[in-house]
Amino acid sequence: MQVFQTTLLSLLMMVFLPLSAIAADDDPDKTIDDSTSTDAPQTAQKNDGIMLRQEQSIDGYAPLTVAGQQVDAAFLEETFGEPRGAIIFFHDQGEALESWGVVTPLRKEMLQYGWSTLTLALDYSFTPNILLAPDTKIEPPIDAASTTDDSNTAPTPTDTSPDANPDDAKADDVKTNDVEKEEPATLPPVSNKQRIEAAIAFLKTKDIQRIVFLGHGSGGIAAMNEFTTASTPIAALILVGTPALPKDDDFKALNQPILDIYGELDIEGVSTAVNQRKAVMKRIGNIQYTSREINGANHVFYGLESTLASTVRGWLYTIFVKQEKSE
Q1: Assigned superfamily of 57-123+189-326
Q2: What is the pLDDT of residues 180-206, one digit of tens each?
């Protein structure tokens, strides 16, 4: 009898215990411990990622208004306490005003040596390279209507119903024309010359008189294009990883100090272009030109940013600060 009671009690426990567990899970007042929940940490990680993206910003962001349009720019003031001047950065094609390879490390590093920095977004024209095989023939487009069998072509029906009112069609045309007239006119693109002139004007408001151009890659070509035509005389030109310039004559005519930097592992054509510029300047006896090769550096000077900054700082010190102290 005792064995029967024990067996019956066990069966009852097996039936009612799961029901009590289900009831507990359905309790609306139940509090979930975040420390044991697997969903909570995942949600927190996602939120943290969103916050990080939202908090990312460009140091010194100060957009310029040029021809009624806003151009992204960033200005940082020197922290040395003895202002030396300002450097305007020309970023490479395909890069932005904040480029971690060259522009960003330099524009922040030079502050402690008395150089304020300004970087701005530039506009580079894009020319697609479309290559055709030598035997490729370009055929004129085929008019599908002319190749259609006349027997299968039915005349376009004309609405001859009495309900069709020609005045309604004219009214629709007038409405369409009004909508087209209301569309705002597209502003013309802001040229790099306009952008640079706005940057120079901005620096003038900061009472900065000495301005240096620094261009990276294709930015060096853009800097060279604006160097001789700027409304304010530019004190010096620094080229970093810059390929061949379109016009050697303009380059040979420069009398301002020039620093030509490139990496040992730079992209194809850069070292050849620098050596050609060096030979030209040597031939005409221009002692204001200096070239520097940084061993082991690629086009963006990855891992050698401090070496690049030291090279730029030392050259600027020799050209400007040291001369001022000797006078």
Answers
A1: Alpha/Beta hydrolase fold, catalytic domain (3.40.50.1820)
A2: 555 556 778 899 999 999 999 999 999
